Amino acid sequence: MAMTPYRPFLGQTIQTTVPGLATDRGFIAHVQYSALQALLAVQDAIHATFATSDVAVTTVTTNITNPTCPKNVTVTAGGVAADVKAVSVTITGTNDLDEVITEVMPAFTVNALSTEIGTKAFKTITSIAVPAMDGVGVTIDVGIGEKLGLPYKLTHNTVLAAAINNVREAVAPTVTVSPTAIESNTIDLDTALGGTVVDVYLIV
User: Among the four residues 4, 159, 192, 203, which has the most C-beta atoms within 10 Å?
Assistant: First the structure.
């Protein structure tokens, strides 16, 4: 609880019971994600399967489907496991403020077909760059994850409650915050998204 010396009420502080002591005011915000926005994680929602190279970076800038709201990105390596190299896909796009952002995804595990999960909430995707693999048999899918972007820059977790399909979550959601980068403020509900309304209540 932030405390400041008491001064006449100016709309930002409120007098406490303790004489001469005022506190900052807080407001409860209600953020709602529609059924279309709160879609379940889909492996190829952003870009369907495409081939990669074993000699050069594969850069994709077309046939990209943007998330229905700011969400995190996933990349999945398919095809021939023996051709997978421990490289990281780079995603470029914009955040909820239309600022250009990039994310270097976690590296694939060598010789394994796996899905790597990003942490930033992308509003749009403009470029997908895949470094050269160990062989030409690797394919890549780019999808959306379970993390929803919060429309606030937070210094700490102020989420009070979350509900999915009008049922309050019994387990608190996982919240990531950043006071400087809006794309790094995300919420991940305990219940998997399924294309139903999500409501989030937080102090701002």
Answer: 159
Q: How many helices (H) and strands (E) does the chain have?
A: 0, 17
- Largest Cα–Cα separation, the chain: 73
Residue 8 pLDDT greater than 50, yes or no: no
- Per DSSP, the residues of 116-162 read EE--S-BSEEEEEEE---SSTTEEEEEEEEEEEEPSS--SS--EEEE
- How many domains is the chain built from? 1
pLDDT in tens, 45-92: 999 999 999 999 999 999 999 999 999 999 999 999 999 999 999 999
Whether residue 151 is contained in a domain is answered as no
187 membership: H or E segment, kind and range: strand 186-188
pTM above 0.70, yes or no: yes
What pLDDT score was predicted for residue 23? 84
Lookup: tokens for 5: 């010396």
Which CATH number is 98's domain given? 2.60.120
Cα→Cα distances 170→35, 164, 173, 177, 193, Å = 20, 11, 9, 21, 15
Asked if residue 124 is part of any domain, the answer here is yes
Residue-range definition of the domain harbouring residue 48:
42-143
Q: How far apart are CA 203 and CA 159, in angstroms?
A: 6
